[in-house]
Write a structure and sequence with these properties.
The structure holds two protein chains of two kinds. By secondary structure, chain A is mainly beta. In chain A, 11% of the residues lie in helices and 32% in strands. The longest helix of chain A is centred in the N-terminal third of the chain and has 34 residues. In chain B, strand 14 and strand 15 form a beta hairpin. Classes of the chains: A mainly beta, B mainly beta.
């Protein structure tokens, strides 16, 4: 009886409670509205009611920041931000990509010049051919001397090619052709310490017919036929080394010109005037004090007339580009007979060099000015060239190799900067087009001039790649 | 003032300058980032106080504004703003018998990583030395990585990925010039690797596309590694998100 009377009473109590709760809620929101009544209507509308779940309340975009991105890290990440970001370098086996698979990954981009880039030139008058070294694809290419690539052609095919691992040809920068035998002597620069010699009959990926072990960093080559001597410049040790022309393998040089009096400063091209008994050397201008003498060859066993590598720390300096002139039998620490240098000369990385013994004219491939300069052989000091070949019609672009063809009254230039080699009249000057041009790539195809890319840097500001050669 | 045959370059992203060691004139050249054509460097370090002998490699610490030059028995540290005939601000003298000619700087963890192209005559395998970036005078490596498991038989250059505490190494062949298959770019940790440990990753080999790697740099924004190769005479870009 009592329970039946309690139920209606309980129900009434519950209803009263609910009504009171609603009334209280209304009172709360009314007060809240009263508090904000002085704010903007927008503010009022922005007040959110609790919903029991997470709500998006604000969006603020992060500023774009250059450089490495910070990875989003889960709440379960380890102790510190730095430590977590370096978990990829932490304990091994962290579940990253398989190293074996990653090792096989191909590059997404490759910057490479697919066409030969000519660095030096020599003329074979006996066989009416011109021989060119290709410092980009590691080849020696032989063309008919009269080749003249038509404008519509992609390139000219060489008559003969030498290239491949067996040839030991790499970054070649000097070439000589024996006028009697047609043997090709090609100079490797700073990656292979070997002068390679090929016979006239050789082609393809073949071992050299002969080799000569050379100092590191040889560049220019010249031969005195009357003396049967072979001359090489050595960039890395500011030296000039002379062998008997018949020297092979480990035969040692017969003379060495090296020392602080020589004024050799990053020597490159070389020419020999056997008639006047002179040597001419082009220098790019980097100099430092050397410690000369065979005792300074370090751990190498003493080799007669081998350049010394020792130098005095902190003695480096830059001097202007120059042409230094020596007696043909100069050796030791001997000063030049003459030096051609100065602003009037216009020399700027002078490289290939050749001398006309008949007229006494010195031809210079002036790399950084896209020109060929001609000086009298007895020029000295700060003198202007007697003639210069320059201008857009010449087609000269970073000329590094030069050779004379006195039989046909021409000279040849190898242009490292535009896939061409060209022949000009011996007395050409001014803005004169070549007589003939051999192209190894399409017209207007830029030559990348990549040669032994020893390093790289990424400019993240410009998104550019810097490659020193 | 440049020369042919340069084996080092480093970009300072905060200064927008790049630095090139010029060994033939015993100089360090600093160029504006936008330099083009025949333009002189904005600064260069050269002279009797510099102790520069054969500067061939270089790295830049953009945060502490320093440049590092390995010079055989010592590591020379210059201010990035150094100009003229100035002495290094720090000289790290390597342990006896150790000569270094490659370098990378981890500016986050304050570690300098140094190595020798072919190791010392007594070592069959070259080694990576991890040094305190702020050290001066006689230094003792914090850690050394080297040995047959590393697969290192020679090295040409290093580059650090400071934000991840990693170092990348261009492993060339010491045997001869020409293409080699055993070469690669290897990745080790600047913090956790020690002793005879294999690289955590290798890029481009071994037995891959690389034939004689030379230079390395990183494009963090695109998660890429840029590598130059002497035999390929090319610049290659590898997408490698694993280390970014």
């Amino acid at each position: 009886m009592a329970e039946r009377k309690m139920k209606p009473l309980l129900q009434s109590s519950l209803w009263m409670f609910a009504i009171l709760a609603v009334a209280a809620g209304w009172l709360l929101t009314a007060n809240e509205g009263a508090v904000l009544s002085n704010e903007s209507s927008l503010a009022l509308r922005s007040v959110r009611k609790p919903s029991g779940a997470a709500q998006l309340v604000s969006i603020e975009p992060l500023p774009i920041v250059e450089g490495a991105e910070c990875q989003w890290l889960p709440a379960s990440a380890g102790a510190g931000l730095v430590a977590v970001s370096q978990e990829v370098g932490g304990p091994r086996g962290t579940g990253m990509a398989s190293p074996a698979e990653a090792a096989k990954r191909q590059p997404i981009r490759r910057i490479h010049d697919p066409y030969p880039s000519f660095s030096s030139v020599a003329v074979d008058l006996k066989d009416d051919e011109v021989v060119l070294t290709d410092e980009n694809l590691f080849q020696v290419l032989v063309y008919d001397r009269r080749t003249n690539t038509p404008p519509t052609a992609g390139f000219s095919e060489p008559k003969r090619m030498l290239g491949g691992v067996n040839t030991k040809i790499e970054f070649q920068c000097g070439v000589y052709v024996d006028p009697e035998t047609g043997d090709i002597y090609a100079v490797n620069n700073d990656t292979v310490d070997t002068l390679v010699i090929f016979s006239r009959e050789q082609r393809g990926n073949v071992a050299p017919a002969a080799e000569l072990h050379t100092p590191h960093g040889t560049f220019g080559i010249a031969v005195s036929e009357s003396r049967q001597e072979l001359f090489l410049t050595v960039q890395h040790t500011n030296a000039l080394v002379v062998w008997n022309k018949s020297a092979r393998n480990q035969d040692h040089p017969i003379r060495l010109l090296q020392g602080n009096r020589t004024q050799l400063a990053d020597p490159h091209g070389i020419a020999v005037d056997s008639k006047r008994g002179l040597i001419f050397v082009t220098n790019h201008g980097s100099s430092r004090e050397l410690r000369v003498g065979n005792a300074n060859q370090g751990r190498r066993a003493a080799i007669p007339n081998w350049p010394a590598g020792g130098q005095v720390a902190g003695s480096g300096r830059m001097v202007p580009s120059s042409i230094t002139v020596y007696a043909i039998d100069a050796q030791g620490d001997t000063a030049p007979l003459r030096v051609i240098t100065g602003p009037k000369t216009n020399l700027n990385w002078p490289t290939g060099l050749a001398v006309n013994e008949e007229t006494g004219e010195l031809f210079v491939a002036n790399d950084m000015h896209d020109e060929v300069l001609v000086f009298p052989y007895d020029a000295e000091g700060d003198v202007a060239p007697k003639r210069a070949l320059r201008g857009p019609k010449t087609g000269l672009k970073n000329p590094t190799g030069l050779n004379l063809d006195l039989k046909n009254n021409e000279f040849w230039v190898a242009n490292f900067g535009n896939h061409t080699a060209a022949a000009y009249r011996l007395d050409a000057e001014g803005d004169t087009p070549p007589l003939r041009r051999i192209r190894s790539g399409p017209v207007d195809e830029p030559a990348l001039m990549i040669g032994n890319p020893g390093s790289v840097a990424y400019d993240s500001n410009r998104e550019q790649i810097l490659v020193p050669n | 003032m440049l020369a042919r045959t340069m084996h080092g370059i480093a970009y300072h992203r905060l200064r927008d300058e790049f630095f090139v060691p010029q060994p033939f004139a015993q100089s360090i050249l600093a160029f504006r980032g936008s330099t083009a054509g025949d333009e002189a460097p904005v600064r260069y370090i050269q002279g009797s106080r510099t102790q520069l002998n054969n500067p061939s490699r270089i790295d830049v610490d953009p945060i502490h504004d320093e440049i590092f030059i390995p010079e055989g028995e010592q590591m020379l540290v210059f201010s990035a703003t150094a100009h003229g005939n100035v002495a290094p601000i720090r000289v790290m003298k390597m342990p006896p018998g150790v000569r270094v000619n490659v370098v990378a700087v981890d500016h986050v963890n304050n570690i300098v990583i140094a190595g020798n192209e072919t190791g010392s005559p007594e070592e069959r395998y070259p080694r990576l030395l991890f040094l305190d970036r702020t050290a001066s005078g006689d230094v003792t490596p914090l850690r050394v990585v080297g040995g047959p498991k590393t697969m290192m038989t020679a090295m040409f250059s290093l580059r650090a990925h400071s934000e991840k505490g990693l170092v990348l190494l261009a492993m060339q062949s010491p045997v001869e010039s020409g293409p080699r298959d055993e070469v690669f770019v290897g990745v080790w940790s600047n913090l956790h690797d020690n002793g005879d440990v294999a690289p955590r990753w290798t890029i481009g080999g071994p037995y891959g596309v690389l034939k004689q790697p030379r230079g390395i740099d990183l494009d963090a924004k695109n998660k890429s590694v840029i590598v130059t190769d002497k035999v390929l005479n090319s610049v290659l870009t590898f997408y490698f998100p694993e280390i970014f």
